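request received
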Amino acid sequence: MNQAADPLLVADNVRKEFGGLLAVNDLDFTIPERSIVSLIGPNGAGKTTFFNMLTGLYRATSGTIVFDGVDITDKPPHAITKLGVGRTFQNIRLFPQMTALENVLVGMHSRLKGGILGSIFGLPRVRREEREAEEKARELLAFSGLKRVDDQLAESLAYGDQRRLEVARALATEPKLLLLDEPTAGMNPQETVAFLDFVAKLREERPIAILLIEHDMKVVMGASERVTVLDYGEKIAEGSPNEVQQDERVIEAYLGRTASV
Amino acid sequence: MAEWRRIPPRYRGWVPLLVAVPLAVTYPFYVTGLPTNIPVILTLPTVHDSVTILVFVVMAVGLNVVVGYAGLLDLGYVAFYAIGAYTAGWLASGQFQQINFHFGAVGVNSSETGIHISVWLVLLLAGVVTAIGGILIGLPTLRLRGDYLAIVTLGFGEIIPQFVRNGDDLHGFDLTHGTFGISPIDAPGFGQTLHNAVGLPVRYDNSFPPTPDRLFFWTVLGILLLTVFCSMRLRDSRLGRAWIAIREDETAAGAMGIPLMRTKTWAYAIGAFFGGIAGAYVATFNSGAFPSQFDFNISIFLLCMVILGGMGSIWGVVLAGTILAWLNVEGLANIGSWLNSNVFPSSHQIDVPKYEFGIYGIIIVLMMLFRPIGLIPERRRKREIEEGSLGPLDEPLYEMRGADEPGAGERGESERIPRG
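response:
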């Protein structure tokens, strides 16, 4: 792995202000190819805001974000997805009235070509594409550990399955970088462990980089190679999980200052 | 029931269609033989009125693409109807007297002034022109969401009829002939050559037999079937999935790589395309396009059909459209006169059609109370209801059984269906 080469994603001096509120303060952040990195911080630290800037949902007030050599700072979400950034949402945002399979097929949208006339006339090319897409979607569901739920509506799935379906849908966009926004929020410890195993498997079997956002430190410690800690929109620490865990400022941010009498 | 079970499931969906289509096609032959004293409704609609009914159904199916699939509340669909009708007016009548252009029009003397293009081609062109109109209206408005979009479309639905009403003097140029409208408009037909060769009618409006009404009826039935077919194919396509995804969650749809503006604009353009064809067809059927036809009421009326039928459900919309349009053109008058002679005393006669919109309002309110998913709910919504009756499964679906923990997200938690 050529880690010294250009990282997959480079955020340079990224800043986001909401009116008078400074949510992200001139953050520098990189994601190397095929790595698992984490962004943690207490609630309100600016993690999701940063995340939303990476995916085009918010526009950065200043700074630049370069993904895979392309400046994506001002691109709309669908264009960024097409370049290879897939994401999940902190509060699950599946398409509730669509089946699990359809959810995944929607994720493939930017990789399919079927046009209006081709679909109306049922051209062989379009039919074949649809067939192949469906096959691939079923494989993705199986890969994500979803059994026999293909034709169930997303909203009727169990919570853990909904989380997995979100990942399957994000994988369907064929990402080079997968962004997971607090994927274990609301899971019990068992589900969390199972989910992290799944992330590890994902990492082994697919050539993608993963950015994990968490506010629960324990979750990311085992899973990630590098941890960045945000507090009040600023990077307060960065390094291996062990280094970060011992950092004074991190402990302070999470637990408060030690009483010094 | 036993007979029903013998039909393979994948063909069952075709059965209602195989019954309904022959019944509809032969309708002109048996309608006159039916009794005229059926309780409550008195008669079935005449062939002439059936044409109007089916045109409304075509529009409702078109609107269903916009409202039912893509979830874009459009309160100005009548604008597309008007654009279609006036396109037919411009391209198949003597409106532009300074021009003399003929192309494939049947039964029009070549010395007649104006643009006279074959009505078949005009129907298609009207669809295309209206689709372009839909795109132009959509580009600035589709950035809005929900209620804001509804308000702006409402505005466009008012602007277009006002424009045609006042479009008779654009710096001295008469574009729409103002309140008089454009009339007469050419009728469709197949011309002398095809008439001699295979016996197709030369021109619909002076044909006998079959009568013009029958010809117009069969043609609009064909247009409706085509509209339904396109609508179904689109629903099951990549684009249809994208529409439904946008309806379900616009933000997530964008994050999954769906270009929101383009996809929504396509929904608008395709909805407009069918509205335009319907408008042009009405114009050639009535041999005229008049601004008074394009009331705001029609937008709401069409929306009622979509809601009553079940948003996104093609067959539901076809059924509800037929019922409501029939009530509009004949049904209420018939029911009213039946009530007056059988229920109300002669001293208290009631003019039922006067209460038209009150009655539609009550229908919609009752629907919302007792069957909010519509007459024939969309496949996916229906499945949602039936899923609860799934039999027990022989193995656990998923190895982790912690899903009943609190803290599950805002979606899914409340409506989750117990399994296993």
